[in-house]
């Protein structure tokens, strides 16, 4: 893996020159609009980067975007990878390791997820303060590379509290409905049954999705501060559960995306 990372980095650096990103951003399903706010300097297709996994979803474009946002040099992943696509956890988190080795100092993660907390509604935002990992694998299983981090990384505070507090304050100032809660990560790709939604709420989750946690584990392993935010695209309330399509989910995500962008832009500005 070390050689693969070095090959990816050599290729990227050859094409971006002396551009040194300080912030990494992972854009979730239907949330690629933030790219429109970036003053783009370089764009690299995943498919052209040696050893880089390729997103197989038609609504994930699969690009690394390098540019300036809120006065900071950023690199954004426009399109992420999921376990349900057939990738293993090391492949899913490979880009995070590459971004860290490129020099980013903070990782921002976004996703589209389903609301479990009955006080939340679709179209709202939720800042992630903690998570529950129900994925069947862990990206740290196998050989540990001390160059990256310890064999047994602490996960008592996987999301940076200072950034959480700032984001909630920003949302309040902008009159954006933004909650704080626990995100549970499952494999997908199917949505949950009524009984599963009920179970996930009982164990303490406020929102459910199919991503984010593997990347956050690896970021913490590498000592990389993380901020994560969800756009709530559907409501997993067993008593009133309705069928929902991925097209509806993407539509809600795209409608709510400007609110997420407003929070992230101001949060990055305040770093």
Task: Give a verbal description of the structure.
This protein is α/β, with parallel strands linked by helices and 271 residues long. The protein has one domain (2-269): Rossmann fold, CATH 3.40.50. The protein is 31% helix and 24% strand. The protein is built from six helices and nine strands; from the N terminus they run αββββαββαβαβαβα. The protein has helices at residues 2-16, 89-102, 161-173, 194-202, 213-221, 246-269; strands at 23-27, 39-45, 63-69, 72-78, 106-115, 125-133, 178-185, 207-209, 226-235. It has a five-stranded mixed barrel. α2 (89-102) packs across α5 (213-221) and α3 (161-173) crosses α6 (246-269). It is globular, with a radius of gyration of 18 Å.
Topology:
Blueprint: H1 2-16, E1 23-27, E2 39-45, E3 63-69, E4 72-78, H2 89-102, E5 106-115, E6 125-133, H3 161-173, E7 178-185, H4 194-202, E8 207-209, H5 213-221, E9 226-235, H6 246-269
Parallel strand pairs: 1-4, 1-5, 5-9, 6-7, 7-8
Antiparallel strand pairs: 2-3, 3-4, 5-8, 6-9
Helix pairs in contact: 1-2, 2-5, 3-6
Family: Belongs to the PNP/MTAP phosphorylase family.
Function: The purine nucleoside phosphorylases catalyze the phosphorolytic breakdown of the N-glycosidic bond in the beta-(deoxy)ribonucleoside molecules, with the formation of the corresponding free purine bases and pentose-1-phosphate.
EC number: 2.4.2.1
Describe this structure in a few short sentences.
The protein has 271 residues and is α/β, with parallel strands linked by helices. Helices cover 31% and strands 24% of the residues. It is an enzyme of class 2 (transferase).
